[in-house]
Amino acid sequence: MLGRKLGGELLRLRDAAGFTQPQSAEALTATAAKVAKMERGWVPFRDPDIRALCDLYGVDDSATLARLLNLAKADRERRKAKGWWNQYPELRSLVEYVALEDIATGVRTWQGSFVPGLLQTPDYASALAVGNADWEDPDEIERFVEAKIARQARLTESKPLQLWTVIGEGALRQLVGGRNVMRAQLARIAEAATLPNVKVQVVPFLAGSHPGMTSAFSIVSFAEPGAMDVVYMDTTSSTLWLESEADAARHNVTFDRIVRNGLASQDSVTLIERIRKEL
């Protein structure tokens, strides 16, 4: 994503200066295909290439050049990073999201059908996996759950992830794993809500129709300069990434509208405790 942001900025500079990809490639002693890959974020940028292109495009603002170089450096460092999640092939398509979550500064997530992964207990996560019927091997399920729980370390480390989660009341009442599992799961959510970096809200049944009824999604935010929010949506048949500024803005507005249909944080915890007692 950092590479795409950087490539997009250099593409805009090239267009503004009136150069073609072959002309830019000539300045780099490269091929037009390489310039195309760079502008799409498929390959990392070298600092000399950025300087050469900025010279060609007439960019004489030192602040702009410094920002592009810093973005390129962050992009190269992220591409080389190898995380713990690579040890878990059981994560499947979720591995890309976990990698992003590990470097994110904040996540805002809306879930209407189940408890978000960062707040799940092992028993709940296991029951959810069994119910999805995606695995036949119990050992695979165990490894998958182990990886999902490992993600939760981001909530309590020295620079913790800022999590704002909005959950539909139906997800709290669905008996995933049975009453005992759900009692423990609801207690876990209430406990997490006491963390200074975690905000939990519940959209009650009484809210009626609201913008979140069509789909669940997560908005992932980053600290790197120039990195825009990314929207993640997981469907039955595929994983969808939305990486444009327009998509991010639209989902931020939708999230805010869902929040307005939700209970205040303390009232949400009160409802969670009431449901747990009912079980």
Number of domains: 2
Q: Strand tally, please?
A: 6
SS strand fraction: 5-15%
Strand order across the largest sheet: 3-2-1-4-5-6
Query: What is the share of helical residues?
Result: 40-55%
CATH class of the largest domain: Alpha Beta
CA radius of gyration is 22 Å
**SS class:** alpha/beta
CATH architecture of the largest domain: 2-Layer Sandwich
Give a written overview of the molecule:
The protein has 279 residues and is of the alpha/beta class. The protein has two domains: 2-80, lambda repressor-like DNA-binding domains (434 Repressor (Amino-terminal Domain)), CATH 1.10.260; 84-278, 2-Layer Sandwich (Endonuclease, Chain A). The chain is 52% helix and 12% strand. The chain has helices at 2-17, 21-28, 32-39, 47-57, 62-80, 94-103, 122-132, 138-150, 169-173, 179-192, 245-261, 265-278, and strands at 106-111, 162-168, 198-203, 217-221, 230-234, 239-242.
